[in-house]
UniProtKB/TrEMBL annotation:
Pfam families: Glutaredoxin. One of its GO terms (molecular function) is electron transfer activity. This is NrdH-redoxin. Transmembrane segments: none annotated. GO terms for biological process: cell redox homeostasis. Residues 37-95 form the Glutaredoxin domain. Signal peptide: none annotated. InterPro entries: Glutaredoxin (IPR002109), Grx-like_ET (IPR051548), Thioredoxin-like_sf (IPR036249). It comes from the Bacteria. SUPFAM superfamilies: Thioredoxin-like. It comes from Streptosporangium minutum.
Amino acid sequence: MSPTLLVLVIASVLLVITNLPRWDRKASYRDADHKGVVVYWRPGCKYCMKLRTRLRFTRLRYSEVNIWGDPEAAAFVRSVADGNETVPTVTVAGKAMVNPSKGRLLEAVRTHAPHLTPGAGRAAGERD
């Protein structure tokens, strides 16, 4: 197999993997924890893939809602994104952000939902 073909195969596999919802994070608009972090996304969105991939390397607890599979979620996203279905849209304790960076999202968690910060509630000096 040529190196170019190998790179294409790996890229294709990563594209499929990053587009799949995580079974442990998948939720509907009604079932999502709106007091926590909810990531609204849609398949094929490169910005969603980027944010969701980066969040997988954190220990942040969050739910994912596919707006193409949930009309209520799509309506919510339109309500906070000037009538557009702009994703990723993320809510942190009910406060919406459209297309946030990972850093901006984690800062919002520290500000509005510090109990969700990875390692929150641990005793001083306690490690994972």
